[in-house]
């Protein structure tokens, strides 16, 4: 099997010749720039770092590195063509910190001394008190993309690689609100002023469809998997009740999933961190085919339970190794033991793509990452 056949077989809940691997390319299995330097040093490669996410300090892994890792998945490297000048986006600094405001008016700060990431410090609508205040928000105009970018996915397809679109327009229907109004304000609004929230989510759905229209104008017929990101979970449960997620949030995802699959998106992945076990049946009902990053350290998210209960109905894209504790803090032997244990739990009968639980961070020793990768190579065959 080639990589694409391998992935599509696994996503259809059949066993391919080996487990598909996604490291550094897909939904949330990317590398921070600090770890990526370690990886380049390990392989003896020199290349320019290409940032693709400022707050998280993530980089685009090169095809050379992904080939060395034997990664089956490639994500399109988008080169957006802005359609209008954005009034919010800017970068600046003072004596102590770097600052960044994105197209949605969300403000971030990173300390200059020992700062690794940008922290959220404010949203454009945090002081808005009503719909009139909300309407002052200036919506980003969905970017278009150069037709020449299609060549990249055509090359991947000819090489037998699986292809994804892993970027989105903003965040999800639950997650975008806190980044603009603030967590406390948005969650209170969902319960006490739901009409303010639905007005916003209606518009967000419209804009997302427009964004994906532009995506498929360039990449139509070449996309195996699309992903949306909407973090529902904390370490112990969901941010809001599963009932609210089911009745108020996931209907928007269902409409978007139906729209994208009609355009040829293939399979849909939901990136949602934390303990989302209570919402998995509703996530499946909303038309998601894959769940990522599968935070196995969160409540009720053990690999054995997830596979036994939901393994016939959704693909687990992640869950390969705990990136909160084992990968950064364990010994190489502990990494090997957990990696094999998770493979044994998830891989049976397909429906599993091996990836780390979220992005590989700066504090991960290169020895642990290689121990994980070697263990996968030793145990990836069915």
Give a description of the structure.
Pfam families: URO-D. This is Uroporphyrinogen-III decarboxylase-like protein. GO terms for molecular function: uroporphyrinogen decarboxylase activity. It comes from Desulfitobacterium hafniense (strain DSM 10664 / DCB-2). One of its GO terms (biological process) is porphyrin-containing compound biosynthetic process. It is a single chain. With 382 residues, this protein is an alpha/beta fold. The chain has two domains: 3-84 and 126-379, TIM Barrel; 85-125, no CATH class. 38% of the residues lie in helices and 13% in strands. The strands form three sheets. A seven-stranded parallel β-sheet has the order 4-9-10-11-12-13-14. Strand 10, helix 9 and strand 11 (267-271) form a beta-alpha-beta unit. Helix 13 (332-346) packs parallel to helix 14 (366-379). The longest helix is centred in the middle third of the chain and has 26 residues, at 194-219. The two termini are 13 Å apart.
Brief digest:
The chain has two domains: 3-84 and 126-379, TIM Barrel, CATH 3.20.20.210; 85-125, no CATH class.
